[in-house]
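User: Okay, second chain of the day. Same drill as before: sequence in, structure tokens out.
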Amino acid sequence: MITAARNAIAACLFLGLAACGGTTGDDTPVSDLPRDPSPMEYVKITEGPCFGACPVYDFTLRGDGQVTFHGNRFTKESGQSLGFRSVGTFLDAIETLKAHDFDTLKGFYDRGSEACKMATTDHPTITVEVKSEALSGTLHWYTGCRGMDNRIKLERMVDELKRVVDVEEYIGTDADRAAMRRR
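Assistant: Same drill. Structure tokens below.
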């Protein structure tokens, strides 16, 4: 009988407290603790071409911190580059999007859409695509749209997201891109 009880306790410790209904030291159920994101989860930022020297790239941050970057034009890194961020950076990116109401902003802000009352030409299109347990969706934004109610919210969200995931490491600064134009 004692051996069976010891085996049950050992199994709980081996399989993890969550499987046995355990709690943390502060009585939080282990099942309520945040989990590590899956490598299948991601935040992707794509920036398309414009008439000038806009960076053209795809930047993907996976839940496990893996970064895949494809620099097409006017980027510090050309072609495919791989890198890493912490899992915390991925979680910070998700929290940034949530804080800027991504759920209410996702959708299409493109020429011809109801949200885009007027459009100027030759601006880049930015796409933010998210797939995670906490948040999913796609935002497609032609930055030449004018007269939009959400323009400032979109700019702030995209700018902060790019800062949090440090896209600048791959695309370079404005000064870096100005030097590329002179070559």
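The chain has two domains: 2-32, 42-182.

User: Thanks, on to the next one.
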